[in-house]
Amino acid sequence: MSTTQDRPVGHLPTSLSPSRASDFMQCPLLYRFRVIDRLPEKPSAAATRGTLVHAVLERLFDAPAVERTPPRAKSLVPGQWDRLLASRPELAELFEGDEGGERLAGWLGEVESLVERWFSLEDPTRLEPAEREMFVETELESGLRLRGVIDRVDVAPSGEVRIVDYKTGKAPRPEYSEGALFQMNFYALVIWRLRKVVPRRLQLVYLGSGDVLTFDPVPADLERVERKLLALWEAIRLATESGDWRPRPTKLCGWCDHRAVCPEFGGTPPVYPLSVSPAGSSDDGQGRMGPDQV
Questions:
Q1: 10, 67, 119, 283: which could join 274 in a potential S-S bond, CB 3.0 to 4.6 Å?
Q2: Residue 138 and residue 150 in contact, taking contact as beta carbons nearer than 8 Å
Q3: Do the beta carbons of residue 26 and residue 178 sit within 8 Å?
């Protein structure tokens, strides 16, 4: 068994974001690999495309309203790609061997098409966002810290708040929309706790299919989300202390970078990097993992 001296460095979970909460609900072992072990993952063309589209739409609002046009937006794509590549050089791996640049050109063309489609769904000349790429963080009464980044926050003259999230994929069928609504309700809960106002509208803009989905939450909706997050955090706490992270195989496993170390595919996870507590030894509350972990 590994001793304390040779145990690899691990990272205690200290907060929840929509992405990490979704990871745990999808597969607890995936959550462990990403949050505690922090195993490296290969860059994804789809995820990077989404990051670039978000950057372009954010920067477009720097221009005066009358200049927020499709040509202007598409002209931002090359520069934003250069900035992204400078901050994350590993993204160059996506186009290794593309000597003539055809793959890169086609990929950037896809980004331009997604950006252009946005103009058929919203009119940026009539929008003045209160916030763009807004980092939010709050601590619930339980001690659970919630954090995330909201694509856009619009505030009406009446004070009503709209939270907007851009998706570069296609809108899910109604029976599969729960995940996206969970993310938006997560953000709505954080805004409610921070500003003491329930957002009037949650809006998902799907650039891949040209759909706009909206949901108008009420306090009861957000209270249910809060209870769900507390239960989720309790499950994460128990798994962290016991070291028992169960894989949950789904169709999404085919896109996972960690199959080589996943028991479902014959792999062996890395040595668990945190101390393991005997079952039932902790009486810690739902929110904090420990007094020094908030």
A1: 10
A2: no
A3: no
Question: What b-and-e string marks burial along 45-77, b requiring 16 or more CB atoms within 10 Å of the CB?
Answer: eeebbbbbbbbbbbbbeeeeeeebebeebbebb
Tokens read off for 227: 């209870």
205, pLDDT greater than 90: yes
* 3-class SS shares of the chain: helix, strand, coil, % to 5: 45, 15, 40
Alpha helices in the chain (DSSP H): 18-26, 28-31, 45-60, 70-87, 102-118, 178-195, 219-242
Q: Is the Cα torsion angle 58, 207, 222, 155 positive or negative in sign?
A: positive
Residue 283 has pLDDT above 70, yes or no: no
Work out the angle at residue 23's Cα, subtended by the Cα atoms of residues 196 and 133, and round it to the nearest 5 degrees: 45
Residue pair 80/114 in contact (Cβ under 8 Å)? The answer is no
Query: Which range, of 35-39, 120-124, 177-181, 216-220, averages the lowest pLDDT?
Result: 177-181
From CA 205, how far away is CA 212, in angstroms rounded? 5
List the Cα angle 196/200/202 in 5-degree steps: 110
> Distance between CA 293 and CA 153 in Å, rounded?
30
Q: What is the mean pLDDT of residues 2-11?
A: 66
Residues near 264 by beta carbon (within 8 Å), at least 6 away in sequence: 247, 249, 253
Give me the phi and psi of 118, to 5 degrees please: -55, -35
Instruction: Give the whole-angstrom CA distance, residue 260 versus residue 175.
Output: 32
Q: Is the pTM of this model over 0.90?
A: no
What is the distance between the terminal CA atoms of the chain, rounded to a whole angstrom? 30
Residue found by looking up tokens 């109604």 in the block: 174
Tokens representing 31 are: 């959550």
